[in-house]
Design brief:
Elements: E1 2-7, H1 8-12, E2 17-19, H2 31-46, E3 53-63, E4 72-77, H3 79-96, H4 101-112, E5 113-114, E6 119-120, E7 122-123, H5 129-136, H6 146-163, H7 168-177, E8 179-186, H8 192-198, H9 208-218, H10 225-240, H11 244-253, H12 264-272, H13 277-298, H14 306-319, H15 327-338, H16 344-363, H17 371-380, H18 388-396, H19 406-415, H20 424-436, E9 449-453, H21 461-467, H22 471-478, E10 484-488, H23 497-507, H24 513-519, H25 526-543
Parallel strand pairs: 2-4, 2-7, 3-8
Antiparallel strand pairs: 1-8, 3-4, 5-6, 9-10
Helix pairs in contact: 2-7, 3-4, 3-6, 9-12, 10-13, 13-15, 14-16, 15-16, 15-17, 16-18, 17-18, 19-25, 23-24
Length: 547
């Protein structure tokens, strides 16, 4: 490894090409970074300073190919600064072209393109390559993108300075001669990803997914980068979108081992470090295959089997509401089902058992815990059983697991302050499951409904009279399951007694059992709420059976 201070001019001088690898993230600098850079350059100009301004480090890896007339160098770290400064020079070129065509051509030939090959000196990463070349090589404004916005920002700012009389020749001199870098050039025996990690604190922070992508590709020969990126990595990342980082963690969590969100990269490093290039390729193939399974978990509505789909939708919704999400466990079960290792009935049975465990524990006020790790451990403990799901449910029924019995569950439904001690999406899952347990002539369109307390949240005189309680007793009654009902989406929650009863009577025509049950009650007393909670508890015991 060789480290030396370098200016931009010598870095770009002569026929050479700096290639940002396929695996690097897209251009990510935005207005704050552009403005800071421009202000730093302008300060050097206005102070008439001969001092240099340090912009950080670049990590470069030279590719030796004697047959190539233009030396290629991979930009392992520093692409944001190199691309941005090239756009800055392109903006100066295009501002000055009408007034000094020769000066514009000198900027173009010296710092932006290799004239003999008509190729750019800096080749942006895959997603930005064409857009960047449109600006730098073709001197045209591309479609909307951060590259376009950076170029436009610089061009407008430079034109404003030209109108004030700035000397563009001196401005270019500052850019190419007074902005300094530490250029770290790696040899074949150097470890590029270790150096890359140590420099990650500079510039725009990388996500765990960014770090992992760079690590994977730096473990493969550069000649393979384009193929692996286009056929495996890019489709996988596009498929999962902003959930990609979650996937890289959940892939590890599906084995039942705890991994903290900020330690995903280090855990992957431990797993990948001993592998050779073939091992890295195998892991990439495995990641691609599991990403298809993960996409199903993110979109449970795509599941073809109705029973599996309904259970999976409820559990994925519930998983989003808890601090220890259990998507990795759902991933394991659903993948076994999709791959033919479990039948639809077995997958449904496993999902129902977990749903029952979660709902019953909620109503009995059980402490929060990492259910994902527990569920995977119990699921894996049944590997040798003839029926793995039955073994899983049996293990889940052990007393130490804390699956509440019918008596505790029933009493919890009557007493538990559901409104004040649960997430709205949990309540929606519970209400939909209870409603779905009845026969309906047509599917219920839950997207048109809201779940609300029948009484207002704050005590009002008419409701205190209706319930027959004082304010202290009011709070104990209104949060329980018996005080919930469906209403049309967007309806105000604080109706008076008469208005609420009229509304619910109108709603009975939709055939909703959780509405009809209230509409049949003459007076909505605290005792009526408790009685309704008990009726719902009797049904809940069958909706969420234990074991």
């Amino acid at each position: 490894m060789k480290a030396e201070e370098m200016r931009l001019g010598p870095l770009l001088d002569g026929p050479k090409q700096y290639v940002v690898p396929y695996f690097q993230r897209a251009y990510s600098w935005r207005r704050r970074q552009w403005t800071t850079l421009f202000d730093d350059i302008l300060e050097l100009y206005e102070l008439n300073s001969l001092n240099s301004h340090f912009l950080g480090s670049m990590v470069l890896l030279a590719e030796h190919n004697e047959a190539d007339p233009v030396p290629h160098t991979l930009v392992i770290d520093g692409q944001q600064r190199m691309v941005t400064l090239s756009l800055f020079l392109a903006a100066i070129r295009d501002v000055v072209r009408t007034s000094d065509h020769d000066f514009a051509d000198r900027i173009h030939a010296a710092y932006l393109v290799n004239t003999a090959q008509d190729g750019v000196k800096v080749v942006a990463t895959h997603t930005d390559r064409d857009t960047y070349a449109t600006v730098v090589r073709d001197a045209k404004e591309p479609a909307a993108s951060p590259i376009r916005d950076a170029y436009r920002t610089f061009r407008e700012a430079i034109q404003e300075q030209v109108d004030k009389g700035i000397d563009l020749d001196r401005l270019v001199h500052i850019v190419v001669s007074q902005l300094s870098f530490v250029a770290i050039t790696l040899d074949a025996e150097d470890n590029p990803y270790r150096i890359f990690e140590s420099l990650n604190a500079k510039g725009m922070p990388l996500t765990q997914g960014d770090l992992l992508r760079n690590y994977f590709f730096m473990r493969l020969p550069p000649a393979e980068h384009e193929r692996w990126y286009n056929t495996v990595w890019s489709p996988m990342q596009s498929r999962l979108g902003d959930r990609f980082d979650d996937y890289m963690r959940d892939f590890l969590l599906k084995e039942g081992q705890p991994v903290k969100p900020d330690e995903v990269y280090q855990e992957w490093r431990k797993r990948l470090a001993p592998l050779d290039e073939d091992g890295i390729r195998d892991v990439l193939r495995e990641l691609a295959a599991w990403s298809l399974e993960y996409d199903q978990i993110l979109h449970p509505q795509r599941e073809a089997d109705a029973s599996v789909r309904h259970r999976l939708q409820r559990l994925t919704a519930w998983s989003k509401t808890v601090p220890f999400q259990f998507n990795p466990f759902l991933l394991r079960i659903h993948a076994d089902y999709r791959r033919g290792n479990l039948s639809a009935e077995q997958a449904t049975r496993a999902f129902l058992a977990v749903e029952s465990l979660l709902v019953r524990r909620l109503f009995t006020g059980a402490p929060v815990r990492d259910d994902n790790q527990l569920l995977i451990e119990l699921y894996d403990s049944g590997k040798d059983a003839s029926d793995r799901v039955e073994a899983f449910v049996e293990a889940l029924s052990r007393p130490q697991i804390g699956w509440p019995n019918d008596t505790d569950f029933t009493e919890g439904i009557v007493r538990h302050p559901l409104y004040f001690a649960s997430h709205p999406d949990q309540r929606k899952v519970i209400a939909e499951a209870l409603e779905d347990s009845y026969d309906h002539r047509a599917a219920v369109r839950y997207e048109q409904l809201d779940l609300q307390l029948i009484t207002p949240l704050l005590p009002r005189g008419d409701w205190l009279t209706e319930l027959g309680v004082n304010e202290e007793q009011y709070w104990k009654s209104i949060g329980t399951l018996g005080n919930f009902t469906w209403v049309p989406r967007g309806r105000a929650p604080d109706l008076g007694v008469a208005e609420r009863k009229k509304e619910l009577l109108r709603m009975t025509r939709y055939g909703l059992e959780l509405v009809k049950d209230f509409a049949s009650v003459g007076r909505w007393t605290a005792e009526a709420i408790e009685e309704r909670s008990r009726r719902l508890a009797e049904r809940a015991v069958t909706v969420w059976p234990r074991g």
